[in-house]
Amino acid sequence: MLDGRFANIGWMQELPDPVTKITWDNALLLSPTTANRLGVKQGAMVKVTAGDRSMQAAVFAVPGMADDTAAIALGNGRKEVAGTIATDAGFDAYPMRTTAAMGMLRGASVQATGDTYTFAHTQDHGSIDAALIPSVPHNSVQERLPTLVRETTLESYRHHPDFAEHAVHVPHRLSLWQEGNLDGAQFRWAMSVDLTTCTGCQSCVTACQAENNIPIVGKDQVKRGREMFWIRVDRYFRGADPAKPDGFAVQPLTCVQCENAPCEQVCPVAATVHDSDGLNNMVYNRCIGTRYCSNNCPYKVRRFNFFDYQRRDPIREQQGPMQVKPEYYVETGPDEWLRMQFNPEVTVRMRGVMEKCSFCVQRIAQAKIKYKNEWAKAGGTASGKPNYSIPDGAVVTACQQACPAQAIVFGDLNDPTSKVSKLHAARVSYGLLEELNTKPRLKYMARVRNPGVDHGAGGHGHDHGSGDGHGGHANNGTQNGAQA
Prior knowledge:
- This protein has a 4-stranded mixed β-sheet. The protein has a 4-stranded mixed β-sheet with strand order 15-8-17-16.
- The protein has 12 helices and 18 strands.
- It has helices at 10-14, 32-38, 128-132, 145-148, 154-159, 203-211, 219-223, 292-296, 336-339, 361-377, 398-402, 419-425, and strands spanning 22-23, 28-30, 44-50, 53-61, 109-116, 120-121, 151-153, 189-194, 231-238, 247-254, 272-274, 280-282, 303-304, 354-355, 408-412, 429-430, 442-445, 447-449.
- The two termini are 32 Å apart.
- The protein is an alpha+beta fold and 484 residues long.
């Protein structure tokens, strides 16, 4: 929210915090140890007092926070003229801020008020661990992390550069079906994500929203697990003790475009099918909303339109079974001002259909048209079957374009010189849940950490600070595994 100037922008409110995964609110962050000592649980309302200054906020315990420290982001809790989205969203921390120390206040006390508050956070929505292993504890530390986010230290990597290949045992590569449907394809679109350079900033999430007409749904719907993001950034803490995690890892995840897609095998109306280039497409006009595909997807990356989200304002707290504007029942489409925001190259989905990442198929189509026309002008039509090529880097997905760390690479696997082909062939490249034989077209470059020097007990690195003065996450120095 910065200082509050972005608080009335729905994209910013619904974007999960990269560490807590909270949407539509800020929170008073405490370490699990401090929260237990104070006798407060998640969502407990507390009063923070320092001298003659005080504020109220709800508590959220975060692994890796320093003990006896409370942190909160600025920009929320605006009143009156803030706008329909920003009004009463979160808690106002400015009463505690002075020019004497803009980012820190010493000597504060925290006391529970007895009230509670409900947060909408997304980390456990579509959890891969919960889907595959029911016994996973809900303490933010994931048991399957070593196979999901494969990582090692730089020293270990130098001795075992093939560590990512041996993280899981893949019993066989055979399939129950004859898999020759993609043989001879002109293009084989694929993506690579580098987990070492990804910072979890989530620019890709908002870029995807803007490019693909993805709606915001409001806090009420997020609490029900109905957020519509086509790409999400999962957050994991390493270690067995949530009070003192060994590290912190992030992983962007979208539809991995399985060649052997579980969703296609259960759709009764063939609404999700493969095209000749290997993309797992959604045919919205066929979809009847059975949601079998979502149930069968091990990555949990499919989204279902429970309402015409494009035709209703986002709601913080639901007051009835379905709260909409009166015009909803008489208008044939979105508000004219909202319609001007949409990308005309992408379908605006309707209630009752599934949707998911398409690898920005509209951008792929645009490149195909351009280079096919150039091929035709050069006399290529005389040869019959189109035999044009698309240069590497000509197709850039929205997430790739917005990534400040350049962690996302997209291209054609049929071009052996393309960057994505070389990355997929690297020894640190791996497919998520590859033991299920889904043959994903999205692969990850395993994370190589370079831990800092141990400076004694309780020392923290500070590479994950936000740098905007509010100190909301500056104490979570576990991004590079440098926690002592």
